Tetratricopeptide repeat protein (Glutamicibacter halophytocola), 164 residues
Amino acid sequence: MSETWEQRVEAYWDTSAGKSAEQLREELGELLQGRDPADPRVLFEMASLHDFLGEEEQAVLPYQQALQAGLGGQKQEEALIQLASTLRNLGKPGQSVALLEQIPSSSLLHADAQGFLALALLDAGRSTEALRIAITALAPHARLYGRALAAYAQDLDVPGAAQR
């Protein structure tokens, strides 16, 4: 049974650690060979490589183009999260927040998005909101005090709530 393109892309990312930028570019070039350069997945993979290599400035446009070209499903949410993280790293936390707020609570990546949202809110000077998001995301995973954590998270900016 032959590997699908999707499986080859996953294998590429699974084995990317420790490879040189040159090798990664060459391998991705081979994977993308023959595909339409305007294909949303091609744009997404190119943006992801720029991000992976720490080339945030070069990642922004292909992420935006992938989203505008109709990247769908979970890859759309991955692109939103990755673009938001990139924009935050480039000193644009407000744009990051706007993107991350698009990830619905029903998404499998909602918790991931909430972590990045907390970071972006903190960078945007909205520390109370950042802490609320982070604690709310953590609460369902707490062993004994999840309900209390969730309640305190909602009361963070209510005067006198901490004294209860």
